[in-house]
Amino acid sequence: MPNHSSCRLVCSTSLLFATFYFVQAHIKHLSISFYFNMEFHKFRIRSYEGQSDRAQVENLERKCEVAELDNELVGVIQGSIKVVTVQGHPPKDLAKVGYVLGLRVSQNHRRKGIGSSLVTTLEEWFISNDVDYAYMATEKENHASTNLFINKFHYTKFRTPSILVNPVNHHSFKFSSNIEISRLKIEQAESLYRRFMGSTEFFPNDIGNILKNKLSLGTWMAYYKDDINIGPNGQIPKSWAMLSVWNSGEIFKLKLGKVPFCCLLYTKSWCLIDKIFPCLKLPTLPDFYNPFGFYFMYGVYHEGPFSGKLVRALCQFVHNMAKENKDEKVKIIVTEVGGRDELNHHIPHWKLLSCPEDLWCIKALKNEGLSINTFHELTKTSPTRALFVDPREV
Ligand SMILES: CC(C)(COP(=O)(O)OP(=O)(O)OC[C@H]1O[C@@H](n2cnc3c(N)ncnc32)[C@H](O)[C@@H]1OP(=O)(O)O)[C@@H](O)C(=O)NCCC(=O)NCCS
C-alpha cells in the first residue's frame, strides 16, 4: 500500500457494488483493491467513479440537493490514510491515521441512516488497513455532523485550530529591503521540515510526496540579509521562517452563493472607493460571486527573536504571487494553525472571513492497551498545541 492512500464512496439509489480504490496524493489512481456487495435498504454503497460521478457529486456538494430519481447519487464520503507523528505512540511516535472528509447526504434523503452507513463503511476500510485512529474536522455549529460523529460514532473533540483567510487585493506588498526570501529545493525543504517540524503533531511521514506534488507550488525561506549566522555552508540563520504553498484552486473552485444585500453593497462600495482613491491602498474585498481559486499555505514555521516579521513578509510574498496568477483567479489565501498559536498574530488575515475554531475529532480504532493509552494522552493534552495541517486534506 502506498504511504498515503485514499478512497471515495458514494451512495446511490440503484447500484450494486461497493468498490474501493487507492489514490496517491489525490492525483493518481493506483489500483482497484476489492469489491463487495452491500445492500442498505433500497440504497447501495459503491466507489466513486471519476468521470461519471463528478457532476452529480459536485451538485451534491454545492447545494446538497439532489432529486429523488433512480440512479441519483444521494450520499458521498471520502477518506485517506497516512502515517503521521503522534507523540507517545509506539514504537517511534508514528501512527497510522485515517481522515474522514467530504461527507454529504442529499437533503431529501437525510435522517435515513445513509450518513451513518457511509461512515461505517469508511471505518471498516480504515480497520482493514490497520489504521490506529480515525479523525475528522467540522464546524462546531454543525449539529448534524457533531451529533453524528461525537454522539453516535463516539469521536472525541481533540483540537481546535483556526482557519485564517486573507483576501488577495490589487496592490502588491513591499517588504523591508533587509529581508531576503529564497526558494528552497524540494530536498532542502524536506530536510528542514523533518528536522524542525518532525515532532509536530500530525506531521506526515510522507512529507516528500506532498512537496513533490504538482499542486505544491514551492517552499520559501525568509531571513535577514545582515544575519551573521548565514555562512557559505548554508547554516541556519538566527531568525528565519519558512512556508510552502499549495494551489487548491486547481482541484476545486469556491463561490459565494446567496449573500445578504448589505454584504454585496459593502463589497461594491469598497471596490469603488479603491478605484477612485487607489493611493489609499485599501485592502479590497474581492468579487466572491464568481468561481475563484485559493492558495493554501502549509508548513509555516519560524524560529528566532525577530522571526514573526519574517512570517509576515513570506505571507506578503505569497499574496503578491497570488495577485500575479491571473489564470487561476486566486482570490484568497488560506492557512490553518493550532488554536491560540502565536502564528495567528503574524499571519495577515481578515477576522470577518476566518474561522477561529475548526473542530477536529478523533477516534481510536484499535482497542489494544497501548493505543488506548496514547489516545487518552492525545485527547487530554492542550487543544491549542501546534498541528501540521496536510494540504491534501483541505
Ligand atoms: C451530516 C449529514 C451527512 C448526516 O447525514 P444523514 O444521512 O442524515 O445521517 P444519519 O441519518 O445517518 O443520522 C445519524 C445521526 O446523526 C445525527 N444527525 C443527523 N442529522 C441531524 C440533524 N439535522 N440534527 C441533529 N442531529 C442530526 C443524529 O444523531 C442521527 O442519529 P438519529 O437519526 O438516530 O438521531 C447530513 O446532514 C449532511 O449532508 N449535512 C450537510 C453536509 C455536512 O455537514 N457534512 C458533514 C461535514 S463533516
UniProtKB/TrEMBL annotation:
One Gene Ontology molecular-function label: acyltransferase activity, transferring groups other than amino-acyl groups
Entry protein name: N-acetyltransferase domain-containing protein
InterPro entries documented for this protein: Acyl_CoA_acyltransferase, GNAT_dom, Plant_NAT
Superkingdom classification of source: Eukaryota
Chain ranges of the N-acetyltransferase domain: 25-226
Gene3D superfamilies membership: 3.40.630.30
Coiled coil (UniProt feature): none
